[in-house]
Amino acid sequence: MTAPRVRLGDLSVGFVHSLADAVRSFDQDPTPLLEQYGLDAATLGEAGARLSIARYMRLGHSAIQLTGVPWLGLRMGQLSRISQAGLAGVTAAQAPTVREAARTLIRFEALYGANYRGQSSFHEDASGAWLRFYSISPYNDYNRFVVDSILGSWLQQLSTLAGTELRAQKIEIEFEAPIYSAQYAHLSEHPVSFAAGANQLRLSQHSLGLRNPDHCPSTWRHLLALCEQELEHRTRTRSLRERITQLLGPLLNGGREPDLEEVAARLKLPTWTLRRKLADEGTRFRAILNDTRRDLAMTYIRDTELAFGEIAYLLGFSSAEAFQRAFKRWNGETPGEFRRSQRHTA
């Protein structure tokens, strides 16, 4: 049985528009850069077109080099529009309140962006709510802008919906304070907490309760139903193997590998039932784990600048040496040889 190709994830090309607008805001023409990445006007206008996460990170890094602006992700957030999140964004734009708009953007995130590392979440309590973007550590010049753009766009889009500027009560970010840390000042009432345990922003109950003057109840319910149908369709058409592959990403982190029992619990299946269902599909859990690690390793080596020790950590290996031995067993060459051959081909 041929394993499906595993990618880091993908997202709607709608995000490219705010990146292009950010580049233009610094008096640079983004067109040659976008065309270099195969993103011409026809592709950007194609229904349902997606861009791989790895390619998006490289595009963002190239845009930062072009403009010389390391905080380009924050500028993207300022210029983002809720419609760039596709059907989920259009639906959120009809929500009755900021709270429901935020819930909608996060609940239907898979419709405009999917990353094997996890998914965003919404956590409300008596005094407010955290909007949390999943971890994409370790951080480097390629992926810090992703966190900046997401947190910034949430605030910008919800502000547009409410018709007033929203500021977070608090913002927490996983990576260390960058050289441009002063650029976050306008986003939050308090200084941003860097080197934190999560990427998240907090909104007060007052902000969450702000009404959307463009809300139309019947249109809102109709769009919600369409989002639910699309999300259910995406879930239903995935094989058990694909569902397990998606689960493995967040479980692999940190020098440990998940086992069959842990995955079965996540799927709400008895271990023996999961083992039997996989046998019916002609595979085993260990084969899926190895295929997932192999394909993700190849993607990381080819499409990022991560050190092999960092890749080993992301894939749940106890050491860089263990990862390198496994990679040579899978591919017949070392990670270094594979990276050099890929760069030569490129």
Radius of gyration: 21 Å
In terms of quaternary structure, the protein is single chain
**Helix amount:** 40-55%
From the 3D structure, determine the CATH topology of the largest domain: H-NOX domain
* Overall pLDDT level: 91
The main sheet comes to: 4 strands, antiparallel
* CATH architecture type of the largest domain: Alpha-Beta Complex
**CATH superfamily assignment of the largest domain?**
H-NOX domain
Proportion of beta-strand residues:
5-15%
User: End-to-end span in angstroms?
Assistant: 30 Å
Broad structural category: alpha+beta
What is the topological layout?
Elements: E1 9-12, H1 14-24, H2 31-36, H3 41-44, E2 50-52, H4 53-67, H5 72-79, H6 86-92, H7 98-107, E3 113-115, E4 121-125, E5 128-133, H8 144-162, E6 170-172, E7 199-204, H9 205-208, H10 217-236, H11 240-252, H12 260-266, H13 271-280, H14 285-303, H15 308-314, H16 320-331, H17 335-345
Helix pairs in contact: 1-5, 5-8, 6-7, 6-10, 15-16
